[in-house]
């Protein structure tokens, strides 16, 4: 059989998309509700639930670090992959620049999150 | 003579409610991205110290932020529902007790897991309250 | 006899610069399919109307058209369901129009040939050795994907094919999967080369409309998307598993 077409590297980004999508489906709604609505309004949970000493302790703990890192990073990679393909759907040429901007943003978010979580120490 | 006519694809997704729903599903990615950035800014401010982090907390208490998060909440729910709706398509044929497992069963199991995870997260937060 | 307004998209390459709508007030009965409606138009109103058809019973796959913007088999769709408002009939979306309701399907035929659409026996048997035996479960694993009648409604439903006709597409990938899923077949590695390409499964964004419109329950969306998992496994495990390893 003649050599086939070149192998796509999509599996890497699709894997990240899938992991992020599953995490967002399971945890996204409640995380948004807690951090963005309940705590700021003091509903069900007190407004000082997320105050600096408590959040610092959470982020300094290695489990807390891992939780925050994976949520932030995988959400970003999920969104980047879907947004990149959606550009193509709405007629925006999905070339090298679009790919760089989408996945580059996810990489930037990942690096900022990693750097910040390391900077808070343990 | 042959002179094949190619029809344009512009506005394709407006032509059918199925495609409109698909575009709404894809649009949820904007909400997932926005929330990732909100959290990223949060941990960044955390690394910059108390004053910076308090500024982030203050911003979260503002009405524009709360309204934004209600929109993000709706989008996250749409993401979760549409995620488990399409998930069975990525799976090979499953058999349980000799019978084929229907796609709807897999979807319902996924939504149940999402509901359970949400409640578990809330329960953990409740137990960790000051 | 009652009538129903029916608009048909016409295109005659030798005289038309672009397609145009032709309208008829078609006398019909409740048992008439859209295909029968087209045949009545050709018989009684305009003999130049061109369209493909054959079996009239949803097994040959010839009579696919867009009815009110949705891909449907003409023989399996009924005029009574569009009364009294009427209906619009166009050629299948995402294919170049040859003439009237006839589209150029050469691209699909080429893809059908490229996917190795035959069993390459894993363990060849001579006639003396007897039949290949399969359990009912092994049959069930691929049977649904063998139901495809090549009607191309799924290609008309697939926006990714509409945006990029290099995409191998739902029906071709379903047939590819039919062979990969058959316990008798041993050519999975060769077919995976097509699956793993950008225009293999990776152009699909799981819209899922293909499975909605399939008149035979093939579920092409499932055939394509479960092969994303297979392709990802192949991508990440290719250095671990020896070449030619199955599954």
What does this structure look like?
The complex is a heterotrimer of chains A (122), B (130) and C (247). Chain A is mainly α. Chain A has one domain (17-119): Up-down Bundle (3 helical TM bundles of succinate and fumarate reductases), CATH 1.20.1300. Chain A is 76% helix and 0% strand. In chain A, helix 2 crosses helix 3 (62-89). In chain A, 47% of the residues are buried. Helices cover 71% and strands 3% of the residues of chain B. In chain B, strands 1-2 form a two-stranded antiparallel ribbon. Chain B starts with 16 loop residues before the first helix and ends with a helix. The mean pLDDT of chain B is 97. Chain C is α+β, with helices and mostly antiparallel strands and 247 residues long. Chain C folds into 2 domains: 3-103, Beta-grasp domain (Ubiquitin-like (UB roll), Roll), CATH 3.10.20; 106-237, Alpha-helical ferredoxin (Fumarate Reductase Iron-sulfur Protein, Chain B, domain 2, Orthogonal Bundle). Chain C is built from 9 helices and 7 strands. In chain C, the strands form 2 sheets. In chain C, strands 2-1-5-3-4 form a 5-stranded mixed sheet. In chain C, strands 6-7 form a two-stranded antiparallel sheet. Chains A and B meet through helix 1, helix 2, helix 3 and helix 4 of A and helix 1, helix 2, helix 3 and helix 4 of B.
Number of DSSP strand runs of chain A: 0
CATH architectural name of the largest domain in chain C? Orthogonal Bundle
Structural class of chain C: alpha+beta
Q: Provide the helix percentage of chain C.
A: 25-40%
Task: Using brief descriptors, characterize the structure shown.
heterotrimer, A: 122 residues, mainly alpha, 3 helical TM bundles of succinate and fumarate reductases, elongated, B: 130 residues, two-stranded antiparallel sheet, 71% helix, flat
Strand and helix map with partners:
The complex is a heterotrimer of chains A (122), B (130) and C (247).
Chain A: H1 10-41, H2 52-60, H3 62-89, H4 96-119
Helix pairs in contact in A: 1-3, 2-3, 3-4
Chain B: H1 17-48, H2 50-60, H3 63-86, E1 95-96, E2 99-100, H4 103-127
Antiparallel strand pairs in B: 1-2
Chain C: E1 3-10, E2 20-27, H1 34-44, E3 64-67, E4 70-73, E5 87-90, E6 97-99, E7 102-103, H2 106-114, H3 136-143, H4 153-157, H5 159-163, H6 170-180, H7 188-196, H8 209-213, H9 220-237
Parallel strand pairs in C: 1-5
Antiparallel strand pairs in C: 1-2, 3-4, 3-5, 6-7
Helix pairs in contact in C: 6-9
């Amino acid at each position: 059989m003649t050599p086939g077409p070149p192998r796509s590297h999509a599996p890497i980004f699709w894997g990240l998309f899938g992991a992020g999508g599953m995490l967002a489906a399971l945890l996204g709604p409640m995380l948004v509700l807690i951090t963005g609505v309940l705590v700021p309004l003091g509903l069900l949970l007190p407004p000082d639930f997320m105050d600096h000493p408590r959040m610092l302790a959470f982020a300094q703990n290695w489990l807390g670090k891992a939780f925050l890192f994976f949520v932030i990073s995988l959400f970003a990679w999920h969104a980047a992959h879907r947004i990149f393909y959606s550009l193509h759907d709405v007629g925006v040429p999905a070339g090298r620049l679009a790919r760089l901007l989408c996945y580059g943003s996810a990489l930037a978010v990942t690096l900022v999150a990693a750097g910040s979580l390391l900077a808070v120490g343990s | 003579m042959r002179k094949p006519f190619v029809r344009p694809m512009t506005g394709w997704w407006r032509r059918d409610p199925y495609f409109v729903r698909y575009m709404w599903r894809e649009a949820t990615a904007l909400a997932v991205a926005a929330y990732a950035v909100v959290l990223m800014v949060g941990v960044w401010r955390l690394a910059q110290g108390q004053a910076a982090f308090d500024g982030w907390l203050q911003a979260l208490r503002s009405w524009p932020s709360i309204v934004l998060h209600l929109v993000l909440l709706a989008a996250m729910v749409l993401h979760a529902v549409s995620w488990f709706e399409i998930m069975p398509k990525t799976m090979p044929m499953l058999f349980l007790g000799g019978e084929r497992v229907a796609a709807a069963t897999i979807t319902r199991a996924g939504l149940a897991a999402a509901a359970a995870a949400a409640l578990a997260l809330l329960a953990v937060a409740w137990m960790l309250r000051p | 006899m009652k009538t129903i307004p029916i608009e048909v998209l016409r295109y005659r390459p030798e005289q038309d610069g672009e397609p145009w709508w032709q309208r008829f007030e078609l006398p019909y009965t409740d048992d008439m399919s859209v295909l029968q409606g087209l045949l009545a138009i050709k018989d009684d109103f305009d003999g130049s109307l061109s369209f493909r058809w054959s079996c009239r019973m949803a097994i040959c796959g010839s009579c696919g058209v867009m009815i009110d913007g949705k891909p449907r088999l003409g023989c399996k769709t009924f005029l009574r369901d569009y009364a009294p408002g009427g209906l619009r009939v166009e050629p299948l979306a995402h294919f170049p129009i040859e003439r009237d309701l006839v589209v150029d399907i050469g691209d699909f035929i080429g893809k059908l040939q490229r996917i190795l659409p035959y069993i390459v026996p894993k363990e060849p048997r001579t006639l003396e050795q007897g039949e290949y035996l399969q359990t009912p479960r092994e049959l069930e694993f691929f049977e649904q994907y063998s139901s495809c009648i090549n009607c191309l409604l799924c290609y008309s439903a697939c926006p990714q094919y509409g945006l990029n006709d290099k995409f191998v597409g739902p029906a071709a990938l379903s047939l590819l999967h039919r062979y990969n899923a058959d316990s008798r077949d041993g050519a999975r590695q060769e077919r995976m080369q097509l699956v793993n390409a950008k225009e293999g499964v990776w152009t699909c964004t799981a819209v899922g409309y293909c499975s909605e419109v399939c008149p035979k329950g093939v579920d092409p969306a499932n055939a394509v998307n479960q092969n994303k998992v297979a392709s990802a496994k192949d991508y990440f495990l290719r250095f671990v598993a020896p070449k030619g390893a199955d599954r």
